[in-house]
Design goal:
single chain, 222 residues, Leucine-rich repeat, LRR (right-handed beta-alpha superhelix), 4-stranded antiparallel β-sheet, kinase activity, kinase, signal, membrane
């Protein structure tokens, strides 16, 4: 197997085996970029007979960006090499800010409290290409990002509106519409310094009068 990639990236390579033959010897070397003295492993069917087994490299970067994975039977082997699955992971260098710890703690608490079922793994804001669904961020100071918009509409949220939302002090837009939220809106939520839009429509909240009577710059939707 061969591939070529940008030389600034390194890879981790996982190879998976489960052998179903035990009557004859299967033994082979796993060579990665053999001509460049890359990683090398040896697999035996006496260790992976009916047992899932894998080998993997540490982070590895080829000098010229070219990669080759070869399975070569040893002289002692009767059976040819085999492979059940191959996984290749590219390590993406951090080139952008990370999320402010206060914002990270708050949104992780929200995730846990409501059991949010989205692709919420890793850093909420970075890498930008893999930012969490419904989360938008801005670069605050050159080395940290702030969560500025959170869309949890139609997310099957139950219970009351958590006070953890009030810890996202850079929020400009919060959409909690069309869930099953009840109770009251936390007093400090409408007064977040940057909040411009709060959408709580389609819930069973008890204090819509707060929204109707609020005269500040915040846009309420209920």
């Amino acid at each position: 197997m061969n591939w070529q990639y940008d030389t600034k990236y390194s890879f981790m390579i996982f190879l998976h085996f489960t052998d179903f033959v035990h009557s004859q010897i299967r033994q082979f070397d796993i060579l990665i970029n053999e001509n460049e003295s890359g990683p090398k492993f040896t697999a035996y069917n006496d260790t992976c007979y009916l047992i899932p087994t894998h080998v993997h490299t540490e982070s590895y970067r080829a000098a010229g960006g070219k990669y080759n994975v070869t399975l070569a039977a040893t002289k002692a082997s009767v059976l040819p090499p085999m492979l059940n699955a191959l996984e290749i992971y590219v390590r993406v260098p951090y080139e952008s800010p990370t999320t402010l710890p206060q914002d990270l703690d708050a949104i992780m608490a929200i995730k846990t409290e409501y059991g949010v079922r989205k692709n919420w793994m890793g850093d909420p804001c970075f890498p930008i290409k893999y930012a969490w669904d419904g989360v938008k961020c801005s670069n605050a100071s050159g080395n940290t990002s702030r969560i500025t918009s959170l869309d949890l509409s139609n997310s099957s949220l139950h219970g009351t509106i958590s006070n953890d939302f009030t810890l996202l002090t850079a929020l400009e837009n919060l959409d909690l519409s069309y869930n099953k939220l009840s109770g009251s809106i936390p007093d400090s939520l409408p007064t977040l310094p940057s909040l411009r839009v709060l959408n709580v429509s389609g819930n069973q909240l008890s204090d819509e009068s707060l929204c109707k009577n609020y005269t500040g710059p915040l846009i309420f939707r209920f």
